[in-house]
Amino acid sequence: ESQLYLPLRPGCPEIVSRAQWRAAKPRCQKLLGTPVDTAIIHHTEGTACSSSTSCQRVVKAIQDFHQGPQRKWCDIGYNFLIGEDGRVYEGRGWKTMGAHAGSKGNWRSLGIAFLGSFGSRVPNAKAQAALRSLLSCAVRRGALRNNYALKGHRNFMSTSCPGQSLYDLLRRWPHFRA
Hints:
Keywords: Antibiotic, Antimicrobial, Disulfide bond, Immunity, Innate immunity, Secreted, Signal. It is found in: Secreted. GO terms for molecular function: N-acetylmuramoyl-L-alanine amidase activity; peptidoglycan binding; zinc ion binding. The protein contains four helices and six strands, in the order E-E-H-E-E-H-E-H-E-H. The chain is α/β, with parallel strands linked by helices. A six-stranded mixed beta sheet has the order 1-4-3-5-2-6, with helices on one face.
């Protein structure tokens, strides 16, 4: 199964590649100037998933929606997505600017979305551990500054995202800044 994932760096989580979840090609790309100073957390407000197969389907459906007639975006909006299977799914990845927090946030952040709706519950322990590991990895590989700010989508736009329960959890994490 190891060939299904992007190569591991020491201390980095396994990241399910775009090829593995059968991503469509991006229609355009803007480079992200790294290291960025912010990690913006989202929830997808849709179906949660707890197996690799179901999470891959959910990620592909999100990309189809983002690239489809309603949004017409270049690609899936997030840099990474996290399922309750404990895996990280590559969205736009480390070097491409996302479409997740408007003009105030996209150019200076990594957008990370939990798959599911977290207004009344938090992501499970495996998903939370995957986020911690991804953030540490981002700092180690130079994609995210050491003194980064952890924020919710609502800190950039008028939205309830990433859900009240998840937002309350993030407020207790060391790098959180409103």
